[in-house]
């Protein structure tokens, strides 16, 4: 058998599995809020800076606008965001938080610490923090490659 084709030798499998399992660990907290992990990511972007164009949100999340738009539509139906026409360019859609989503930020503020405590049972926060620069370099490099 080819060693390079063994599942245990695949970095991609570990990254995929860790990401999937971490996202799953968030689910109990998101269920309480009535949101999904992708919706949480959009909310994080808008909690940092409200009233952003769809394109800017997509860029920040490293996603295509055709992936973000249906997500925003579902969030709008749920009463979390409003999409309004841009003042300068009416073809542009600006995404704004609703009062419900603004209030949700207060409920969500404890989620990172709770998840950190849960993950901290297995890996120290120092170990996780040490991974961030390498992951950022990997993401940046892959973005350049995939352009």
List the helices and strands and how they pair.
Elements: H1 11-33, H2 37-48, E1 52-53, H3 54-60, H4 65-77, E2 81-85, E3 93-97, H5 99-108, H6 111-119, H7 125-145
Antiparallel strand pairs: 1-3, 2-3
Distance between the termini: 34 Å
Shape-level CATH architecture:
Orthogonal Bundle
Biggest sheet features: 3 strands, antiparallel
Number of helices: 7
Beta strand %: 5-15%
Question: What does this 3D model show about the protein?
Answer:
- This protein has 147 residues and is mainly α.
- The chain has one domain: Arc Repressor Mutant, subunit A.
- α1 crosses α6.
- The mean pLDDT is 94.
What's the short story on this structure?
By secondary structure, the chain is mainly alpha-helical. The chain is built from 7 helices and 3 strands; from the N terminus they run ααβααββααα. It has a single domain, classed as Winged helix-like DNA-binding domain superfamily/Winged helix DNA-binding domain (Arc Repressor Mutant, subunit A).
List keywords for this structure.
7 helices, 147 residues, 3 strands, 8% strand, three-stranded antiparallel beta sheet, globular, mainly alpha
């Amino acid at each position: 058998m080819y060693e390079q084709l063994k599942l245990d030798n695949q970095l991609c499998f570990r990254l995929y599995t860790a990401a999937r399992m971490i996202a799953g660990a968030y689910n109990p907290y998101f269920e309480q809020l009535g949101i999904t992990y992708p919706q949480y990511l959009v909310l994080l972007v808008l909690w940092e800076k409200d009233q952003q164009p769809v394109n800017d949100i997509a860029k920040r999340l490293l996603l295509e606008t055709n992936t973000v738009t249906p997500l925003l539509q579902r969030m709008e139906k749920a009463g979390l965001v409003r999409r309004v026409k841009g003042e300068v360019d009416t073809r542009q859609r600006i995404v704004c938080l609703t009062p419900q989503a603004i209030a949700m930020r207060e409920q969500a503020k404890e989620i990172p610490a709770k998840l950190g405590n849960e993950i901290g049972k297995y890996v120290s926060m120092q170990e996780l923090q040490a991974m961030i620069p390498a992951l950022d370099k990997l993401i940046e490099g892959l973005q350049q490659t995939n352009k």
